[in-house]
Amino acid sequence: MAKRGNRVQVILQCTEHRESGMPGMSRYITTKNRKNTPERVELKKYNSVLKKYTVHKEIK
User: Most exposed among 2, 22, 31, 47, judged by the fewest C-beta atoms under 10 Å?
Assistant: First the structure.
């Protein structure tokens, strides 16, 4: 039987795109170590619709 690891997949969604009202959304899928970072992750990623780097927050 395989062990259940500490790494889990999380979805990051752009915060600025949601507030701008433009159609579509900017989302990224990444992994995080649940043991080292129990809180929600915030990363700067590229938003192709807004054509700039914005803050993406982890969604449930």
Answer: 2
